[in-house]
Amino acid sequence: MKRLLLATTLVLIMAACCRTENHQPTGTAADGPEWLFLGKGQINLSTKADTIGTFCLTLVTDRSLMASVQDTVFAQEVTIGPDSLLNIGLGAMEAGFYEVRYADRHFSIGVRPDEVVSVPDAKEDFDAFWDSTLSELSGIPLEAKWTPMPENSNDIRESFKVSFKSLGGAEAGGIVCIPVAEGKYPVHIQYMGYGADVYPFDPSANPDRIDFLVSVRGQGIFRESEGRWIDRGLASKEEFYYRGAFADVKRAVDFAASLEKADTQKLIAYGESQGGAFTVVSAALDSRIKAIAPAVPFMGDFPDYGSIVWWPVHEVLEAADAEGIPHEAIYDLLSYFDVKNFAPRVKCPAYMSFGLQDPTCPPHTNFAIYNNLGSTEKHFLCVPTCGHSMWREEAWPPVRTEFFNEVLGLAEPSQPTSIQKN
User: Fold this and answer.
1) Does domain 126-408 fall into CATH 3.40.50.1390?
2) Are 76 and 67 in contact (CB under 8 A)?
3) For residue 30, how many C-alpha atoms fall within 13 Å in the half-sphere facing its CB?
4) pLDDT digits (tens, 9 = 90+) for 312-357
């Protein structure tokens, strides 16, 4: 029996090694500089440099950008001629993200991002904590209130501002736009970015679906004058702002499924930045979500997040210092809200987009979520020159729309809704 187990283990290890060698990337890059490298061979960086001269070119790892001394993995003198073309062999590189530096220029490149490892660090009671939270939520009546928006309604679709009760009795809701004609319709649940402005839907667009723009507590249609949420309630995981906000995300699905004209087999979710995080959480907390398309998702891998950029982790740590809360306790708290820890619970198809130059939700944090998704079908789209503003990128909406149409079995693409600003 021991020999059989040993032989089986060796076969599994060899199979895993073979799968690694035959790795097939699950994503693509939009048109732009070839700064995303998906293969395992030697890497050659060739790009327009917008300068001429001889410089020292270096590559540093993204996870050392906030360190006093960066981790330099490559350094070589390069000469850029009158054609302003930079062409240099970087050799074989480990999967990850790197900043290229020369002269006064710098930009990011990615190497096999779907092999980047960010191990979930959920505590033993993670599932119990969220099961308890959802149980508490389920005991609160929805009590939806509807306010007509005649200026954003016509004989095709009607718009309403809605509010409903969520965890702790707080208000959540948003704007919903519903076809006038009888029937059952897919519901597109759109989660908003951090402090994003509310916008109405065009009632003449997309007559074949229900659109629901979600506002969580204190944001969207409930927005307060104080525009900071990430450092609220740091004393405990029960008091942390995002416990309530994530409950609002789940309650939004409850509301969408309760709509008389909703086809509850066709509930999908998407959003950018914070909305991307909410999108993943919605599918993690409610299996009625049939597909998700998060863009530049926020709140992935807090321990590494703070080593790449200042916000939001260091803002949280500063607030913790002011309250006398140890950093170790803060990272323990944040682990209950780290979206990479929700990702394994997601089983529906997923399509993520990201900007390779994102200084707000860096690619590593996006892939901390993506690479831990429990989905058997998942894809990504990289826009090499994009920072955080995925809502401005023309390449993303048609890809997202085609993905949703395929998942929902729709014959004709519906007109994509403009992407909301974070």
Assistant:
1) no
2) no
3) 20
4) 999 999 999 999 999 999 999 999 999 999 999 999 999 999 999 9
Pairwise CA distance, residues 76 & 184, whole Å: 62
40-111 CATH choice from 2.40.10, 2.60.40, 1.10.1060, 3.30.420: 2.60.40
Is residue 398 within 8 A of residue 306, CB to CB? The reply is no
Pairing assessment for the beta strands 145-148 and 85-91 based on DSSP bridges: unpaired
Which strand ranges, in their side-by-side order, compose the sheet holding 105-111? 36-37, 105-111, 96-102, 53-61, 72-80
Cα–Cα distance list, 250 to 207, 284, 287, 326 (Å): 26, 9, 10, 31
pLDDT exceeds 60 at position 113? yes
| E-assigned strand segments in 30-71 | 36-37, 43-48, 53-61
Neighbours of 287 (CB within 10 A): 12
- Do 306 and 330 touch, CB atoms closer than 8 A? no
Query: Which of 372, 242, 246 is closest to 304 using CA atoms?
Result: 372
Give 25's pLDDT tier (boundaries 50, 70, 90): confident
CATH 2.60.40 range(s) for the chain read: 40-111
Residues of the chain with CATH 3.40.50.1820: 126-408
Query: Structure pTM?
Result: 0.91
